[in-house]
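Weekly sync, protein design subgroup
Attendees: M.S., D.O., the rotation student, P.L. (late)

Item 1: inverse folding check
M.S. brought a backbone from last month's batch and wanted to see whether the design step gives back something sensible before we order anything. D.O. pointed out we never logged the input encoding, so this time it goes straight into the notes. Structure tokens as presented (199 positions):
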């Protein structure tokens, strides 16, 4: 991950395989078993994305539920894109709409950055926790649009075109938002990462 992996403490989780296209076809016809399989397959990635966009709390479950309800209503217009990208687009719009309606607490951008493996030393765990807090603070200062572009690019591995579609803006705007978000994260984390190199 660009800004977060400069010291190797955070790593990108590979995108899991997509659901079987036959299940999506059955979802489009309203098959309840297929709809349930769709939810089971994507509920964790959607929840993770929403937490990164709006922070932890009971509101995340509501937003996840709203995401799947919107997806079920929109299956008729599903155009054969990657189901995860299509669903992440819906989830991102749900999150941004929720933030416009009322301020939501922004907390952990990535819980994995603050959780160290059990075998690591106390110093390494403390260092990771400190980096996790610094990442949270830096990300909290991003605008909602910059944060959404950053999360979709760095955590969900979406292309510029997919992010542009998800946020409803031109690709050039996404490039600018990503540039500014990454620059902000680098600047905010530079001091902490420099200290880590000298220890």
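Designed sequence read out in the meeting:
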């Amino acid at each position: 991950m660009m800004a977060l992996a400069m010291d190797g403490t955070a790593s990108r989780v590979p995108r899991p395989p997509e659901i079987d296209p036959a299940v999506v076809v059955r979802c489009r016809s309203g098959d309840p078993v297929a709809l349930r399989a769709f939810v089971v397959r994507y509920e964790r990635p959607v929840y993770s994305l929403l937490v990164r966009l709006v922070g932890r709390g009971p509101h995340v479950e509501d937003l996840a539920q709203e995401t799947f309800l919107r997806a079920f209503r929109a299956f008729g217009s599903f155009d054969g894109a990657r189901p995860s990208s299509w669903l992440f687009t819906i989830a991102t719009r749900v999150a941004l709409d929720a933030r416009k309606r009322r301020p939501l607490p922004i907390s952990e951008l990535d819980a994995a950055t603050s959780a160290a493996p059990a075998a690591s030393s106390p110093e390494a765990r403390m260092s990771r926790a400190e980096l996790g807090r610094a990442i949270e603070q830096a990300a909290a200062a991003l605008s909602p649009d910059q944060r959404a572009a950053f999360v979709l690019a760095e955590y969900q591995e979406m292309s510029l075109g997919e992010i542009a579609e998800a946020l409803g803006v031109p690709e050039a705007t996404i490039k600018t938002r990503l540039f500014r978000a990454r620059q902000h994260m680098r600047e905010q984390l530079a001091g902490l990462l420099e200290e880590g190199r000298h220890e």
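Discussion: The first helix runs from residue 21 to 28. The domain at 21-198 is CATH 1.10.1740.10 (Rna Polymerase Sigma Factor; Chain: A).
Action: P.L. to compare against the previous round before Friday.
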